[in-house]
Amino acid sequence: MTSTPSPQPPSGTPSPAPPFFTESPAARADRRLIELLQELRVLQTGVQIVFAFLLGVAFTPRFAELSDLQQDVYVTTLLLAVLASAVFATPVALHRGLFRHPGKARIVRVSVRIAQLGLVLLASALSGAVLLVLDVILGTPLALVISGVVALVFAGLWFVLPWAVRRPLEREATPTGATVIKP
Fold it and tell me: Residue 166: which residues within 8 A CB-CB, separation 6 or more?
């Protein structure tokens, strides 16, 4: 007697999820923390690249020609990049320091807030780097306008867009009167 194989989804198509996917609160906290730490790895690489660029700028012959304002922007941007790096590494340190601690859901909530602060610092550092470069190339007035637009793009994509997408989803997923518990 031969059995026929069960039909498989076409190549490249994900298999359908089970109709009722359940996970324990501890498993959910573990999964969320792992996802967050993976995201932070990507961001940390970006911060390191910006930081390396900024370190190199100080050792170029033209650095001495920068105005006081440009040097102030440079120092501020360098410090923002350092702070972003420290903040993005904090959830990793928190995870290591509280490894196997039963309060993982709280660790995730705190780490998410820390990551949001890191995004603000990174957006500020990137906007500052744009301001510094464009100020040297285009002059201060145009550099301020363009770097302001860059900062608004970061704010829109990294904060306003997720908030705008999350609001209707929360309303759809919650019965009237139910309390939404955010991670």
Answer: none
Cβ-contact 107, 101 below 8 angstroms: yes
Best CA proximity match to 85, nearest among 57, 124, 59: 124
**Report field, pTM of the whole predicted structure over 0.90:** no
Q: How far is CA 163 from CA 62, 83, 144, 166, in A?
A: 42, 25, 27, 5
H or E stretch at 58: helix 25-58
Give 26's contacts (C-beta < 8 A, 6+ positions apart): 104, 105
DSSP secondary structure string, 90-159?
Answer: HHHHHHHHTTT-S-HHHHHHHHHHHHHHHHHHHHHHHHHHHHHHHHHHH-HHHHHHHHHHHHHHHHIIII
Structure tokens at 104: 């993982």
pLDDT in tens, 133-145: 999 999 999 999 9
17: left (phi over 0), alpha (psi -120 to 50) or beta: beta
Asked if residues 126 and 150 have their Cβ atoms less than 8 Å apart, the reply is yes
DSSP assignment of 120-137, as one string?
Answer: HHHHHHHHHHHHHHHHHH
